Structure of Two component transcriptional regulator, LuxR family:
Amino acid sequence: MRVVLAEDGVLLRAGVEEVLRRFGIEVVASVGDAPALLDAVAAGSPDLVLTDVRMPPGDGDDGLRAAVRLRADDPRLPVVVFSQYVAGEYAEELLSSGDGQGVGYLLKDRVVDVAEFVDVLRRVAAGGTVIDHEVVRSLLGRRRDPLARLTGREREVLALVAEGMANSAVGRRLGVTEAAVHKHVGSILLKLGLPPGVEGNRRVLAVLAYLRAS
């Protein structure tokens, strides 16, 4: 099996490389940032991608977003996310790609058996699906609460929008510019997965989501 490994922690990356090679797995590329991951997959045609979530250049969910992109380009490419936390914003998109086949999401601090870890990689490479139950529980919790993805400030903005305030009034209440409120509203609509269309209609849908979750 040929693997592309993406992990920005140098020592952890070296350790995972050693584990994989000890079990007869070829590491065709070992990289530390998302752009290098995309390039390595394009050049190496691996049997599996093993990637962390948080890595350069943005030090946000760059690794996971790269994985989503790779699966969009080739839904048959097996991908395992190996991270310290659940990144819900893109995790559901990744796990539902390719009809949910050949994909995995593991939490680093819950891997206690190296042989079992390698077995998971082989199962995913063969088209299986392996998701840590803590990941499942977190995603189900997010699905129950549509506002879980919002920041504290975004929740404040949405609460005031629910009171019928225009962006200018929300800005005055919070002591920020109208442009800042407009940006927050756009982010809220995006995170709630509301369909594009007339902004007023989307604001109503966002308010309904707020009221149902309150």
